[in-house]
Amino acid sequence: MGVSGIGLEVIDVAAFLAQLDTDGSRFTMEAFTVAEREHAGESDPTRAQRLAARLAAKLAFLQAVSKSCMLDSSALDSADLSEVEVVNDTYGRPSLRVSGQLEVLVRARLGNDWVAHVSLTHDGPTAAAVVVLESP
I want to staple 54 with a disulfide (CB 3.0 to 4.6 A). Which of 13, 42, 86, 91 is the partner? Predict the structure, then answer.
């Protein structure tokens, strides 16, 4: 296995929160899975930071895929963000689960043995994620 792509995304939490709070916005429902929304908590004071870090991971993954598959970024512009899910193991460590059309695209380009490593962080006004993609 070797590194195929790296993605880094930084999110301004205040701007992200404004998007979440926009009347009629379906962004949260469309970009995040039920499990991601539940993990962030409805009344948790760090909800916006937690969701922003997950959004950063999704976007960082798309960057890494774009680099590893040598795709024009426009090929991923219509990607369904909910097809990239941030999941946590029993110790709270994050990883990514990819499904749907995005999974088909990644497997077609990288094969079945690719791995995505993810690191999330949020502190005050900023949330960020790094994704390192490995493939044979």
Answer: 86
Instruction: Single out the residue of 87, 89, 88, 90 nearest to residue 98, CA to CA.
Output: 87
Give the whole-angstrom CA distance, residue 24 versus residue 57.
25
Distance, CA of 31 to CA of 67 (rounded, Å): 22
Q: Domain with 22 in it: what CATH number?
A: 3.90.470.20
Domains of the chain: total: 1
Model pTM score: 0.90
pLDDT tens column, 75-114 = 667 788 999 999 999 999 999 999 998 898 888 888 899 9
- Could you list the residue range(s) of the whole structural domain that residue 63 is in? 2-135
Give the SS3 label for residue 106: helix
Residue 9's pLDDT is 97
The residues, ordered by sequence, that sit 6+ positions from 98 with a Cβ below 8 Å of its Cβ are: 61, 83, 84, 85, 106, 116
